[in-house]
Amino acid sequence: MDQNLLLLLCALVVVGTGAQWIASRLKIPSLLLLLLTGLFMGPVSELLFGQPILDPDRLFGDLLRPIIALSVALILFEGGLTLDLAEARKVGRPLWTLILSGLFVGFGSVTLLAHYLGGLDFATSATLGAILVVTGPTVILPMLRSARIAFRPAALLKWEGIVNDPFGAILAFLVFAVATIADQPQDGGVLGLIAWTLLLIVANGVLGLAMAKLLDRGMEHGWIPEHLKNPVVMASALLAFALGEVIGHEMGLVTVTMLGMGLANTGSPSIERIRWFKEQISTLLISILFLLLASRLDLEDLGRLHIRHLLFVISVLVVARPLVVLVASIGSGLPWRERVLVGWIAPRGVVAAAVAGAFSVELNDAGFPDGEFLVPLVFAVIFLTVSLHGFTIRPLARKLDLASKGGKGLLIVGASSWSVALAEALVGAGAFVILADTRYHRVSKARMQGLFVYHGDALSEEVDLDLPMERVTKILAATDEDSYNSLVCVHFIDDFGRDAVYQLLPETVGDAASHLKGRTPWGERADYRSIAKRFWGDGEFKVTTLSEEYDFARFAADNPEALPLFYLDENNLEFLNDDKSAPIGSRLLYLT
What architecture (CATH level 2) is domain 3-399? Predict the structure, then answer.
């Protein structure tokens, strides 16, 4: 075995994962760091050392394009697993108009801008317009997770990014096919080609949904053992892509997207585990793919871009995207704040890069000289959109009041008398609190006291649809049922992280089940019975502001029987554990 090859393959995984980790620590867009790392490992290292650190074409040879294609298919399948039709129904008409406007208005406007402003030939311009229809789940989903913006604009951006990805690739293929047969009349001509493409799209969509139904039946009836569900689903996604590609070029992307969406809407209890597994696989694949694609860039091609090309790249952001959203929002009733946010955010990612790499070669082979600009222009759009949109989505959403301005949001599950009093004290101290409970009389009492309440199960899918969860940064499961509290924590861990999910101290604590519980704040005095007993024994939730003269140590000395619960500073709400003290200047909330 070639040891250098082995080391290089390992380095791909390590460097890609490391770049994502560093990006998360620095709070910068991960794809931006991956792009810069790929450029250094490819063309920059070749310029500096005479040969590239990473040469994907030499490393993988003829296998490179199939590897990229299968990786993109798995990424789109994972995106399809997040498409819940209940979410689409909640958003309503603006969702479908945005998807259609992105396809048609986005394609038309970018094509015209590329031709008349960028100076590209029409075939290359139209191919570029089709590719840039793609916004991409590989970029938008991580952005939405970190920014935590309001439900509707988040749903619009997510659905547009996932649904339009396969159609952008198909549109690029269709444009290329039309350009190459324009001077060669065939049976049916252009209209026949378009009709045949639409028929293939429908056929592949049906194939994907049929495979989803078959997998759902297999899981429902126990035909697939539990330990094989993830491998079987992954193998099915690859098979779906291969069958789709046999039916028609680029059609496999439709098949895997519909397979993912079909599985997401079956209601199967196994879907959450499958979704989590596929998300981890996609994260790894995105790292490797972006390193491979960025390292294949040619600095000479980038150097050939001139001022007209750069003006075109900027116009994609400031002309084409606002026009797409303007047309989509006509008569939709979409508030202007949401129009502004969605009209600015449209990052491109790995799917656009992969499709551009494939069609650049085909355009050149077909005699369109401007095809050489396809890859550098797409990467320029990727770099600009990932940078600008990644750094601005959170501040812009806050400015438009579509995201929480601080980390002071708390969801309390369980509206007992004492948790209602706790919520009142927290709101008075400046926190944002939601109380959730299945018992109507408890919820109605809390509502009469002016609190934000949710009547329903905190584990239901409607929580994300009906509540401003973008404002919530921490969870407290505070019912009188320990097992339900644990279930609530497990449910929210993936979205909020284990450090932000808390539950009252269970009456029976077992180390073996620690991974099935949330964090337990406030020590041994903080189980449900103890807090309720203290509260009903003339206990009261109070807030005091700490200062240099009256710090936390002085407070603890003056109030030895008090139970400190939270402190709030200008930006955050924090739980107080036995080993943590509240800083000077914060507001301390405690139970007497």
Answer: Up-down Bundle (1.20)
pLDDT for 354-370, tens place per residue?
888 777 777 777 778 88
Q: Which of 110, 578, 589 is nearest to 323 (CA)?
A: 110
Measured between alpha carbons, how far is 87 from 157 in angstroms, rounded to an integer?
12
DSSP code of 72?
Answer: H
CA dist., res. 438 & res. 279, Å (int): 31
Query: Which CATH architecture is the domain 409-591 placed in?
Result: 3-Layer(aba) Sandwich (3.40)
Cα(first)–Cα(last) distance of the chain, in Å?
A: 69
Cα 546–Cα 550–Cα 553 angle in degrees, nearest 5? 90
Q: Which of 464, 471, 461, 482 is nearest to 414 (CA)?
A: 482
> 385 in helix, strand or coil?
helix
CATH 1.20.1530.20 residue spans of the chain: 3-399
Q: Report the run of H or E that residue 516 belongs to, with start and end.
A: none
| Most confidently predicted of 79-88, 107-116, 285-294, 345-354 | 107-116
Please give the pLDDT value at position 183. 47
pTM of the model: 0.75
Q: Would you give the DSSP letter of residue 221?
A: T
Query: Half-sphere exposure of 149 toward its Cβ, with a 13 Å CA cutoff?
Result: 30
- Compute the distance between CA of residue 174 and CA of residue 168 in angstroms, rounded to an integer: 10
Round to whole Å and give the CA distance between 30 and 22. 8
Other C-beta atoms within 10 Å of 127: how many?
A: 31
